[in-house]
Structure to design on (667 residues):
């Protein structure tokens, strides 16, 4: 077991080799139509996800941060194909998803699982914990007996004694225990990519730390790749190898976690980082780093979408939308901003 | 404490509805005029129950309350219906976590504020409207005139929370109860609301009880912090003392398990287990089953709050 942890043994299903990113997303786009006013001339759309492209390396964690309405959860749902994108392509380990000659959607979904924020709503109240975990694999052709044995082993692994918990129903568990069940259920498919959509946001601090530790252990044991979505920057910093910052449906900055937290280049990322409470009563925040609420994603303005809240806005920001480009010579740190701001440190 | 605005003495709250729960077991604290006290705790620790008891919002049939609550010389638990209506909103007022649910959806923001004003003060409609509008401007709502006639659903989350604060403060209460006012908001908006609350508190000199589970937010706004666990205050003291030298093992564990940039790459320190079931509280210290320092007497006798020169804590074997 130890040897396996230290040397990443290639999964037999590892098609693309170690250098191939596990997931590549290209130009993902989803506009939601807004119910129109009668006789409205112009049809309105919520630009939920607008030309988002990124890739996730094998065995790494990509953190996605942003305020509510920035499209981070929609991106997750588009990747899991819980909703269909308007356009865009995905490549999973070298194979196009749901394309001719690529990987079939059912096969893809087996490789990808999701854990949601609301641990209660995401469990079927009429199934016991064991049934919940065993249900998925049986749909994919595992026998009932085998699925049940596997479910109990998984319960044991996430820290819930099967003899006590297997026959309980979701309402008999606490929030932290339910989230452990959700994690066990996701792992039952033996996925390679796990999307954690605000998975620890609803938990109390002392329980949150337990679940974060569990997630890190499982990642090392099973060579999982995580897409970790959260609005809590402390947690994202702790979990991620790479961080992607989204604003109004677009990626504004992406880079290795140390670059983002120590040398943030986008004014929005800088503002987000300085909005973190300091935990030191002598260093209280004196001025809010950002004024106003996140703007409405319905028909956003031309040019840079951050223009109305940006303290450094220039004329060119109002007309030309910035493209993602490397910051200086650091090629894995990309930012979409015209300003070339001095990178700032917050850690 | 001299000139305490609020005194809570030996407060017990028990719910006897479909499920029984001992929500508060002997809570004692005081809030001075112009002071900001934060009640910090996890879900089920009794922080919101304390706030609701201060306004007597619990259904009387199924709740048993014993103890004493004095606000500004009045005994809150003894107030009759009419006096209670005067007390709510006028002496003490509350803001909630979900402003979307706390507003009445069928009246405009302005109507709700004028209604509150005219219930408590003998003024005509025009004066009330003018004062409500002034209050909306004080909480930095842009285009206050337009928002005055807006319905709650037409405002964004941060804007609704500002309107909620305006509604709570329009009658100039002496005590403001803030029940997780920033939990549902984004980080960039959260800090705006926290700063606004701090500014308004300084301006009006009111006392504030701020309830949160977020230590960072507590540190930003409060003078003192009371840490609650399973219906009791386990430690209370100045912000600096609580953050820098906590004495109760629970406070220490809570601070240690907070994720920050220092613990990247190593496993987080955790408090094992989960909070106790309020229907079956342990006999001794309720934290004992999760506590690494617990000894025999922790399981049999509940500790009382002991005052020291830094913080007051309820623990038999405190952290040195």
């Amino acid at each position: 077991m130890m040897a396996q942890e230290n040397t990443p043994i290639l999964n037999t299903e590892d098609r693309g080799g170690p250098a191939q990113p596990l997931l590549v997303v290209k130009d993902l786009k989803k506009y939601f139509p807004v119910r129109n006013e009668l006789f409205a001339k112009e049809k309105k759309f919520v630009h939920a996800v607008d030309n988002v492209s990124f890739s996730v390396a094998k065995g790494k964690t990509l953190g996605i941060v942003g305020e509510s309405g920035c499209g981070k959860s929609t991106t997750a749902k588009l990747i899991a194909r819980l909703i269909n994108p308007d356009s865009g392509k995905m490549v999973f380990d070298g194979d196009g998803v749901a394309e001719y000659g690529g990987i079939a959607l059912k096969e893809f979904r087996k490789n990808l699982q999701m854990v949601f924020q609301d641990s209660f709503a995401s469990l079927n109240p009429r199934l016991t914990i064991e049934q919940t975990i065993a249900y998925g694999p049986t749909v994919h052709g595992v026998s009932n007996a085998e699925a049940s044995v596997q479910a109990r082993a998984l319960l044991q692994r996430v820290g819930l004694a099967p003899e006590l918990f297997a026959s309980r129903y979701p309402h008999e568990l606490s929030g932290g225990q339910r989230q452990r069940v959700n994690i066990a259920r996701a792992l039952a498919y033996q996925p390679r990519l796990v999307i954690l959509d605000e998975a620890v946001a609803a938990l109390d601090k002392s329980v949150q730390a337990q679940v974060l530790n569990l997630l890190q252990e499982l990642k090392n044991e099973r060579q999982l790749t995580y897409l970790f979505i959260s609005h809590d920057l402390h947690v994202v910093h702790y979990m991620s190898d790479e961080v992607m910052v989204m604003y109004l449906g677009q990626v504004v900055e992406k880079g290795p976690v140390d670059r983002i937290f120590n040398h943030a280049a986008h004014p929005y990322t800088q503002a987000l980082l300085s909005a973190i409470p300091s935990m030191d009563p002598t260093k209280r925040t004196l001025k809010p780093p950002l004024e106003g609420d996140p703007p409405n994603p319905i028909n956003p303005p031309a040019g840079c979408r951050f223009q109305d809240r940006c303290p450094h806005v220039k004329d060119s920001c109002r007309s030309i939308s910035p493209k993602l480009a490397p910051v200086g010579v650091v090629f894995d740190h990309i930012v979409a901003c015209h300003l070339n701001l001095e990178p700032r440190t917050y850690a | 404490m001299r000139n305490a605005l609020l005194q809570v003495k030996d407060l017990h709250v028990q719910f006897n509805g479909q499920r029984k729960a001992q929500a508060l077991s002997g809570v004692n604290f005081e809030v001075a005029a112009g002071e900001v006290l934060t009640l910090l705790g996890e879900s089920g620790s009794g922080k919101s129950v304390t706030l609701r008891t201060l306004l007597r919002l619990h259904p009387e049939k199924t709740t048993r309350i014993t103890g004493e609550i004095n606000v500004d010389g009045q005994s809150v638990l003894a107030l009759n219906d009419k006096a209670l209506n005067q007390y709510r909103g006028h002496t003490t007022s509350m803001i909630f976590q979900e402003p979307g649910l706390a507003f009445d959806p069928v009246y405009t923001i302005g109507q709700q504020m004028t209604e509150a004003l005219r219930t408590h003060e003998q003024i005509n409609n025009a004066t009330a409207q003018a004062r409500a509008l002034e209050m909306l401007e004080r909480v930095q709502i842009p285009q206050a005139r337009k928002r005055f006639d807006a319905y709650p659903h037409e405002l964004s989350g941060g804007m609704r929370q500002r309107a909620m604060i305006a509604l709570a403060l329009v009658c100039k209460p002496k005590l403001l109860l803030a029940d997780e006012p920033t939990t549902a908001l984004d980080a960039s908006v959260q800090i705006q609301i926290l700063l606004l609350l701090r500014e308004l508190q300084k301006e009006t000199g009111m006392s504030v009880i701020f309830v949160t589970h977020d230590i960072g937010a507590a540190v930003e706004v409060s003078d003192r912090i009371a840490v609650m666990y399973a219906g009791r205050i386990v430690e209370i003291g100045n912000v600096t003392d609580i953050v820098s030298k906590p004495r109760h093992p629970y406070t220490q564990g809570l601070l240690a398990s907070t994720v920050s940039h220092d613990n990247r790459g190593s496993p987080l320190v955790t408090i094992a287990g989960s909070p106790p079931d309020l229907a079956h509280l342990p006999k001794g210290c309720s934290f004992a089953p999760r506590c690494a320092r617990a000894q025999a007497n922790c399981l049999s006798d509940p500790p009382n709050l002991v005052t020291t020169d830094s913080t007051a804590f309820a623990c038999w074997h405190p952290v040195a």
